[in-house]
Every structure is written in structure tokens, then in C-alpha cells.
Design a protein that fits this description.
The complex is a heterodimer. By secondary structure, chain A is an alpha/beta fold. Chain A folds into two domains: about 40-70 and about 340-425, Aspartate Aminotransferase, domain 1; about 90-325, Aspartate Aminotransferase, domain 2 (3-Layer(aba) Sandwich). Chain A has 17 helices and 13 strands. In chain A, the strands form four sheets. Chain A has a seven-stranded mixed beta sheet with strand order 2-10-9-8-7-3-4. In chain A, strands 1-12 form a two-stranded parallel ribbon. Chain B folds into two domains: about 30-60 and about 330-415, Aspartate Aminotransferase, domain 1 (Alpha-Beta Complex); about 80-315, Aspartate Aminotransferase, domain 2, CATH 3.40.640.10. Chain B has a seven-stranded mixed beta sheet, sandwiched between helices. In chain B, strand 5 and strand 6 form a beta hairpin. The radius of gyration of chain B is 23 Å and the shape is globular. Chain B starts with about 25 loop residues before the first helix and ends with a helix. The chains are: A alpha/beta, B alpha/beta. Chains A and B meet through helix 1, helix 3, helix 6, helix 7 and helix 9 of A and helix 2, helix 4, helix 5, helix 6 and helix 11 of B.
């Protein structure tokens, strides 16, 4: 495409003198469109740009302390002190840190899991939850090419991106019940029953993102049973173990139920929230196999998928995880700290609900304390959210999702008041 | 629903979903390390290793890296997610290092840079981008090349073909063949070039040959795609090792460049690198960057912080940057020394008059010895020297003390084995 003199002149003004051959060089990338901004990140950007002293960021998907500051856990700092300078930086094996994987499996499957003893679990260190899901999706595409994935409505938006880029067809299943702000259990069970036998389902093990709505233990048992009847494959995304209830064993209950029922599961684990290791990208993907031989084969294939993506996973986060979980005292400290985070969030849920009730809100806010984990699906409309932002400088995603991690004793009253203002005429 | 009791494993009748999953083939290079470990001979030498070793044949963390980590510990920064494109200070530093901080393309905002998972991750992002936006294009890769290149393009579903590169007769570059194959490829192909220290051969084009390559690539409207895994590690000079890339950029071409800090900063396990796309205009770079982000998000969301902070700290502090350059010169220097010693030993011991100077003209961690498969086997079986079957040795795994022994082995294998 020849450039007109006018266009060249514009280009010259904008970019400075053209390099000798550039004027004859059309860009290769003329057809590459600008990608839409990530909806969640856009919220933080807008928040940062807002000069108001009252502004509140409840869009953020990372834990904040009661002063609204990011937190690095004490156990993490201590682990970092211990590992500094103590090891070389040679490549980890393709499957990642053996120690980290061992400890991750104990967390997810149980310390005394027979599956661990029998070496039936194919497991690799992964790039946090995203990387674990992506490895599994790619594995599905390669070895189960006729399969598809059932994803709950709604879910973390990146789930859709992951399975789409892996070229695995997606379906959805009912999950959230807007009227009750709770679980659409009947709809969910129907979709499970109606899905073709042997379908793959993505389940949030605890603290569903973005709704905070989890099945009860009884409901999980029924789901598990129906999965057995239909021979469905359960893939658990567990991004909040320990962070939801404060007790990692309790948060893994759904997984344990399925394991007891004889399911062979897949599981993505992330240490982003429960250990505050967000940017370190520490996670694990595991798949329960028939036997040790199969586990070795499956693991070898997961490694084959990882190799042309990033060769081997990053070390630092893995060192932190294995140092903490491998040392009883540090692990104890971690358990205390993760409970502290969960308790603060649970406390804020209570405070927000009570504040709204005190303000005389005509609506029910039970769901704030019924829901669990980092997020609360408030039930507010996009228009109400816009009002919160424009009138009150409160930032959240337009689906009405509140990140409880961003709520503090300092802002809960302000937040409650604002929510009341925009919803009182509902 | 009649029976709501738990169904035990004994009653479950599912056929295994994973029965059809075969064992993946063993990693060829890993196999070398394992065989080396199992060998009990005192004479054994591991020349398969792809990571730098000191003169004592030990792995090492650069002093400047230890300093940076100590600094980071003291600063006690948080571990928040990086943006999808990575750590801003790292991205700036890496583009500056690659192109030179005062490069007009940087000043003009024409470079799209994403921090990614070392060289592999950078190549994979680029490959995914190529598949999405240039689905009919082919990538041309050298014969031979790093084993994982083919895996990356295969998994990204980008077709590739090879251009001639290594000439076994001269144990040097088949430049005529290389030019001919690049010329013969369909217009608009992506040409994968090793910026310096070609892996596995150690054979790099001369500056004049780079100019000719740029001529042909420009003429055929191909896209140059550089893999820069050894900047600073090859010659000891960051600028010199980037000269091939800068030559192409200076011509006004759009260029892809994948970078890695695994070797030059010894950050192997932290997976730190970058994909750079030099574009014709800033708004093009903007669009390209946005689409690279869209590819990265469903792969890993955002890249790991630790390695990025180390690089940014080292490059951002003049003292540490100076120390890094010194340590890099030392690493490159040690490799040059063993090359010299090996050459001297070979020339001294070999009575046949064979020209071993390719050892000196090759550069970087690896060398193609010109030994064929049975000869390479002899190196291992008789001499306990471990290398890959293509005749590649890693100079990083060699020290001065072992050069004579290695020379004996090479001479024996070359002359006495067919």
C-alpha cells in the first residue's frame, strides 16, 4: 500500500523523521485490531485516575488489609529470608518443583490420601490457576478431542478465554439464581442430567467467582451422585482453599466428597490468594488416574504441553510454597494467617449487611453473609453500579460484584450508605 | 432417585478416559544428563549441559543477582499481580538493552514489548500471534536449530520449513544454501534467526553476511524473527551481540524479537524474557501489544514477578549494571579460554593436519564438533564424555583441566570411528 505524501507528512509529524526504508514499508499489522480492554483491569485504572479522597476500590481481586493495603504474609517473608541465596537457579524439571507438587497434593487430596500413596495422581507445577486450567484444556484438546467443557453461569471471565484458545467447545450450565442471589440448584441438576454422558464440567471447589455462592455439603453430595450416574468428569478449579472458610480442609470438602464417591477428578490449585503469592504465579494441576503407570504417562504428556509453552515453571514461588508447607511451624503460621484473612472478610460481610439493615433498606441483604470468599454478587444492576461510581466514587465491576477484600472498617459505612442510596427505590 | 448412597469404586463401571494416553518420548537432552549421573567413571565429562558452569564445573548464581535479591528482600515489596504485559520497568530495560536506549524506534514508541516466560514463552506468544493473524504464513527455521523451536510452532499450529544452515563439510555456515532457501520461500514468510551464538552449532553469520541476509529478507518481504537467548553471553558485549537485530531494525523493517535472561543473567529457573515487536508506527505497536496481551491472558494471565524485578534492579542501578557486564565478560571469557585451549590441544595432538579452527570461529555455549552419530557414541562409550548425538558439545561444561582429555577423545573418535 503506497503511502500518499499527505499521509507520509502526518506520519513524519507524529513519529519524527522516517527511517530510510520505512516509507516504502507498509505495516504487516494493518489488519490487527485493537483488543478491547479487560473489563476488570479497566475498573482499577479508573479508580487510580480518580482524585476523590472518598474513593473506594471494591473491584480489586486481591486481598487488602483493614487499611486497604496489599499484604505479604509473615510466613511468606520468612520463607523468602530462608531461601535467599541458598540455592542456584538451575531449571526446574519440566513438571516443576517436586516438593511443591507433593505438598500441593496433600493439601488438595488430604494428608493421608491413598491416591498419593498409590502414586495415582499425575501432577505438575503450573502458572497459578490460569496455567493449570490452560494445561488441562490443552490436554483435553489433545487426548479427548471429542470432549467439550461445561462452564457455570456466571464464572470467572478468563475461563471462557482459556478453553476457547485451547479450542475446546464450551457449553454453560445453570448456577446462579438472581432472584434469591443464591444457587439455582434445580437448574444446575437439570443441566447435569441433560448433558450427554461423559461430559466435562468445570466446578469451583469453593468461593465461587464471581458470585460467592457455593453448594452446601448436601448439595455437593447430590451433584457428585448425579455425576456418577452420568459418568461426567469433574474438573475443580480451587483458587481459594483456606481463603473461603479459613479452614483448608473444610474448603476442600467438595473435592473430598467426589473422591470418596470414586470419581477421577482433575484439579487446578492456585496460591495467589491463600498465600498472597499473586504475581509469583504458583499453582498446580493434578489429574487422578487409574494407576501409577497411567499417572506417569499422563504427567509426561502434561509436560509435553508445557514444554513448548514455557519449558519449565518459575522457581521462586515454588520455593516459597514448599518451604512454608514443608515446615510444620511455618505451615502453622500460614494456617493462622489465612484464617485471619478469611475472618476479616467474613467480618466485613457481617458489617456491610448490618449497616444496610440499620439504614432501613427495603431489600434483603442475607446473601452478603450467605455468600463466601472474596466476592459478593450484590444483585445491583449495571445502572446502579454506574451511579455508585459516578456519584460516590465507588469502583466495582458492572455485574454488581463487590470484592469484599476491598471493604474495611474505615469504608464500610460509606459503602453501605452509597448502596442504600442507589437501591432504596428498588 | 432411589439410591442416594455413595457409589464405591467397585461398582463404578467407567472405562478409563485416559487409557489412550501414551507415555511421551523421553527428552533427548535429559537422557544425556541421566546417563552421565549413572556413569561411575572418574573421567566422565558432561558436555550435554545447557547451563553455564564455572571453571570448577559448578552451577553459579551471579553475584549481581544475589545483590539484587538481597536488595529486594530489604525493600520488602508486595507480590501483587503484574499487568498482563508484565513489569513496566523491566519492559523498558529489556527494550533498551536490546535496541540501545537511544534507538529512534524506542523514542518513537514503535516497540511493543511484553514480559514473558523466558525465550520459550516469548517465542510461543509470537507463534500464537502468527497463527491468529498470519494463518497462511510459514516460519523458516535453520537446519539444525534448538529442538524446542519445532515443538513451539507445532503446538501453535504454525507450519514451518527448514533453510540450510550447517555445512558438515566445512563445519561452518552453508551461506549459499541459506540465502537460496530464504529466497525460494513464499513471500511474507517469517524467518527465524538466532541473534547470536546459534544453538546448537555455535556458527553465526559474519556482519557482511547479516547485511546480505537483510537484503534478501527485505526483497522477499519476509518478516525477520530473532531469537536472542545469549545477548552479552556470546561475545561478552551486550551491544555487539545485538548488532544483528539492530541492523535489521535500522533498515526500517518490522521485526519480532524474543529475548531470554536465562543464560546472560543466569536466571534460568525464574523464566524471564520478553517478546518485542518493532512496528512501523506507535499506534501499530499499540494494537499489536493489545493482541499479544489477549493471547497471554488465557495462557498464564500475567507473568511471574521475581525474575523481572531482578533484571530491573540490576539494569536500573549503574553500579550493578557495571558488575553485571563484568560477570558476563567473565563467563564469555571463560568459554573463549576453553575454546582456545581445546583448539591448541587438538592442533598439537592431531598429526593429520585437519583444520580445527572452527572451534575458535564458533561462538557461545555450544559447538558442533563435526562428529557424526557413531563417533559421538564413541565419545560416550569409550571416553565417558556425554554430548548430544548430533555432535554438539557444551563448552559451558568444559574447563581448562579437561581440554587435553577431550582433545584426545575427539581425535580418536574422528579418525578411528566411522
Amino acid at each position: 500500500m503506497a503511502m500518499s505524501r499527505a499521509a507520509a507528512a502526518v506520519r513524519q509529524r507524529r513519529c519524527g523523521p522516517l527511517l530510510p526504508a520505512a516509507r516504502s514499508m507498509a505495516s504487516w499489522f494493518g489488519h490487527v485490531e485493537r483488543a478491547a480492554k479487560d473489563p476488570i483491569l479497566g475498573v482499577t485504572e479508573a479508580f487510580l485516575a480518580d482524585p476523590s479522597p472518598d474513593k473506594v476500590n471494591v473491584g480489586v481481586g486481591a486481598y487488602r488489609d483493614d487499611d486497604g493495603k496489599p499484604v505479604v504474609l509473615e510466613c511468606v517473608r520468612e520463607a523468602e529470608r530462608r531461601v535467599a541465596g541458598s540455592t542456584n537457579m538451575e531449571y526446574l524439571p519440566m513438571g516443576g518443583s517436586v516438593k511443591m507438587i507433593e505438598e500441593s497434593l496433600k493439601l488438595a487430596y488430604g494428608e493421608d490420601s491413598e491416591f498419593i500413596k498409590d502414586k495415582r495422581i499425575a501432577a505438575v507445577q503450573a502458572l497459578s490457576g490460569t496455567g493449570a486450567c490452560r494445561l488441562f484444556a490443552d490436554f483435553q484438546k489433545r487426548f479427548l478431542p471429542d470432549s467439550q467443557i461445561y462452564i457455570p453461569t456466571p464464572t470467572w471471565s478468563n475461563h471462557h478465554n482459556i478453553w476457547r484458545d485451547a479450542q475446546v467447545p464450551q457449553r454453560t450450565f445453570a448456577y446462579y439464581h438472581p432472584e434469591s442471589r443464591g444457587l439455582d440448584f434445580a437448574g444446575l441438576m437439570d443441566d447435569i442430567k441433560n448433558a450427554p454422558e461423559g461430559s466435562f464440567f468445570l466446578l469451583h471447589a469453593c468461593a465461587h467467582n464471581p458470585t460467592g455462592v457455593d453448594p452446601s455439603e448436601e448439595q455437593w453430595r447430590e451433584i457428585s451422585h448425579q455425576f456418577k450416574v452420568k459418568n461426567h468428569f469433574p474438573f475443580f478449579d480451587m483458587a481459594y482453599q483456606g481463603f473461603a472458610s479459613g479452614d483448608p480442609e473444610r474448603d476442600a470438602k467438595a473435592i473430598r466428597i467426589f473422591l470418596e464417591d470414586g470419581h477421577q477428578i482433575g484439579c487446578a490449585q492456585s496460591y495467589a490468594k491463600n498465600m498472597g503469592l499473586y504475581g509469583q504465579r504458583a499453582g498446580c494441576l493434578s489429574i487422578l488416574c487409574d494407576d501409577e503407570i497411567q499417572a506417569v504417562a499422563v504427567k509426561s504428556q502434561l509436560q509435553q504441553i508445557a514444554r513448548p509453552m514455557y519449558s519449565n515453571p518459575p522457581l521462586h514461588g515454588a520455593l516459597i510454597v514448599s518451604t512454608i508447607l514443608g515446615d510444620p511451624a511455618l505451615k502453622s503460621l500460614w494456617l493462622k494467617e489465612v484464617k485471619g484473612m478469611a475472618d476479616r472478610i467474613i467480618g466485613m460481610r457481617k458489617a456491610l449487611k448490618e449497616s444496610l439493615e440499620k439504614l432501613g433498606s427495603p431489600l434483603s441483604w442475607e446473601h452478603i453473609t450467605n455468600q463466601i470468599g472474596m466476592f459478593c454478587y450484590s444483585g445491583m444492576t449495571p445502572e446502579q453500579v454506574d451511579r455508585l461510581t459516578n456519584e460516590f466514587h465507588i469502583y466495582m465491576t458492572r455485574n454488581g460484584r463487590i470484592s469484599m477484600a476491598g471493604v474495611t472498617t474505615g469504608n464500610v459505612a460509606y459503602l453501605a450508605n452509597a448502596i442504600h442510596e442507589v437501591t432504596k427505590t428498588n | 432417585m432411589q439410591n442416594t448412597g455413595h457409589i464405591t469404586m467397585a461398582l463404578a463401571v467407567d472405562a478409563s478416559r485416559f487409557e489412550g494416553v501414551p507415555m511421551a518420548p523421553p527428552d533427548p537432552i535429559l537422557g544425556v544428563s541421566e546417563a552421565f549421573k549413572a556413569d561411575t567413571s572418574d573421567l566422565k565429562l558432561n558436555l550435554g549441559v545447557g547451563a553455564y558452569r564455572t571453571e570448577e564445573l559448578q552451577p553459579a548464581v551471579l553475584n549481581v543477582v544475589k545483590k539484587a535479591e538481597k536488595l529486594m528482600l530489604e525493600k520488602g515489596e508486595n507480590k501483587e499481580y503484574l499487568p498482563i504485559e508484565g513489569f513496566a520497568a523491566f519492559n523498558k530495560a529489556t527494550a533498551d538493552l536490546l535496541l540501545g536506549a537511544d534507538n529512534p524506534v524506542i523514542k518513537q514508541g514503535r516497540v511493543a514489548t511484553l514480559q514473558s516466560l523466558s525465550g520459550t514463552g516469548s517465542l510461543r506468544l509470537a507463534a500464537a500471534f502468527i497463527q491468529r493473524y498470519f494463518p497462511d504464513a510459514k516460519v523458516l527455521i535453520s537446519s539444525p536449530t534448538w529442538g524446542n523451536h519445532k515443538n513451539i510452532f507445532n503446538d501453535a499450529r504454525v507450519p514451518w520449513s527448514e533453510y540450510r544452515y550447517y555445512d558438515p563439510k566445512t563445519v561452518g555456515l552453508d551461506f549459499e544454501g541459506m540465502i537460496a532457501d530464504i529466497q525460494a520461500a513464499p513471500e511474507g514468510s517469517f524467518v527465524l534467526l538466532h541473534g547470536c551464538a546459534h544453538n546448537p552449532t555455535g556458527i553465526d553469520p559474519t556482519p557482511e553476511q547479516w547485511e546480505k541476509l537483510a537484503d534478501v529478507i527485505e526483497e522477499k518481504k519476509h518478516m525477520p524473527f530473532f531469537d536472542v537467548a545469549y545477548q552479552g553471553f556470546a561475545s561478552g558485549s551486550l551491544d555487539e551481540d545485538a548488532s544483528s537485530v539492530r541492523l535489521f531494525v535500522k533498515r526500517g523493517l518490522e521485526v519480532f524479537v524474543a529475548q531470554s535472561y536465562s543464560k546472560n543473567l543466569g536466571l534460568y529457573a525464574e523464566r524471564i524474557g520478553a517478546i518485542n515487536v518493532i512496528c512501523s508506527a506507535p499506534e501499530v505497536a499499540d494494537r499489536v501489544k493489545s493482541q499479544l496481551k489477549r493471547l497471554a491472558r488465557p495462557m498464564y494471565s500475567n507473568p511471574p514477578i521475581h525474575g523481572a524485578k531482578i533484571v530491573a534492579n540490576v539494569v536500573g542501578d549503574p553500579t550493578m549494571f557495571g558488575e553485571w557486564k563484568e560477570e558476563m565478560e567473565q563467563m564469555a571469557g571463560r568459554i573463549k579460554n576453553v575454546r582456545q585451549k581445546l583448539y591448541d590441544s587438538l592442533t598439537e595432538k592431531d598429526q593429520s593436519g585437519k583444520d580445527w579452527s572452527f572451534i575458535l570461529s564458533q561462538i557461545g555455549m555450544f559447538s558442533f564438533t563435526g562428529l557424526n552419530r557413531p563417533q559421538s557414541d564413541n565419545m560416550t562409550d569409550k571416553w565417558h564424555i556425554y554430548m548430544t548425538k548430533d555432535g554438539r558439545i557444551s563448552l559451558a561444561g568444559l574447563n581448562l583441566a579437561k581440554c587435553e582429555y577431550l582433545a584426545d577423545a575427539i581425535i580418536d573418535s574422528f579418525h578411528n570411528v566411522n
